[in-house]
Write a structure and sequence with these properties.
By secondary structure, the protein is mainly α. The chain is built from 15 helices and 2 strands. Strands 1-2 form a two-stranded antiparallel sheet. This is Ammonium transporter.
Length: about 475
Amino acid sequence: MSAVRLIHRIVSALFAVMAVVLVLFFASKAFRSVPEVEGVNYGWGDVVESVPEATEPAEYADVDYTEAGEEMLGEFVADNGFVASTGVQMLVGLLGLGLMYTALARRESGRWALLHLLAMSGVVIFAFWLFGFNVAYPGDFMFGGLLPAGPVGPLMDDLAEDPFSYGMSFTIWTDFFYQSLYAVLAGALVLSLCAGRYRTPTIMLASIVVAAFGFPLTTSWLWGGGWLSSIDARDFAGSAMVHLLAGGAAFALVVLARVCPPAGPGFHPLPGSRRAITGVWKFSNMELALYLVGALLFLVLIVGVNAGSVLSNDAPVVAAVLNSTVCAVGGGALTAGLVSLVLAARPRVVILVIGALSGWAAVCAPADSIDAGQALLLGAVAGGLGASLLYAMDRLGMDDPFGVVAISFVGGGVGMISLGVFADDATVIAQLLAAGSISSMGVALGGSIGLIAWLARVLCEPPEMELPDVTVPSGQPSGEAGSI
């Protein structure tokens, strides 16, 4: 093992340990940041009834929690715990994502997939605490809502003495915990390219840049009150904020790896140098089991992302969001299976999963605005387009081992546009502007990192030579056959 590789693995292990420590620390603050007052159960409750004129959450900060009713304060705890628990669900889903990467990766990179995912998570969560959260929600903007006004620093606020002062149905640390995992998810989707021919340092750097810098800035545009918010663009659960950002970065890296390989123009991957999930590579039973276990765990993340985006434990709304999510996931799997049946003569399990995830990426934006039938149609369109793009990219020699371009770039774009079609309070023009600007940010960040890496000749690993099968003649010692 070279000294550089050894140092890389030691640093990755240290960042992985940091990820575990930070997750435990901020999760404990999310669940325990509500103050204790003797004889009172905390909760959000009927704040609107307490403040009849209030129309925005920020106005709820005027509520005196010490004088609030027991039911009101009790429901605050329920909402706070619900949002924090959806963050825990996202953590479980990220573990499933790591298992899926391990199943799809080549043997060398697969052994380190979970370690790299943990290491990236540690860096991103720390960066989100250091500056990301206050970049995403700065309060004041300059240049027409493009950039935060003034310098931003680490999140130091502790509003436990007055939970309503944050103006939401949960505390500031719960919001931080939940939002930081959104950033980690965006980086994790970019990190999926580690399962292909790409060198880990390149993809690690790209995923960290996208999650730690791109996600907070674009979040400020749409969720933080920036310029996209001013034109009434919407994104309920991250079709743009997570999927288009990560999908744009992945798309740029995939294209660069194809047109700018280390061997120079005209380079074509040899057979066996990559694992094309559309049919070139056959799963072993163990790999298939690992992939399906990871997909089931990732389903927990899907539930957590969309249910938690309600930002309260309002059961009817949560149920409606989950209903549309399930319908979109089912529709995406159905049409992806049909595309696989037409193009490959049989439905492949991996294609079905990618179609289902494309449906999820599409429904994230309009999950609170569409009914079951519309969600089924939306998922079917996203799943069919995503599966078709996957086969087309494979024919063109583009290596996207997890299918993140098909899932996030296509699914996220379809979802943002559909919101402008289905919702009465959103326009197609505003949704297109939001989708275009956020995906362009992803393409710019991923493309710049990939181009720098290519110039340094570290973007891709050289193709693996596949030796021909040698038939050992009868009576010849096997050790002599094919020896050089």
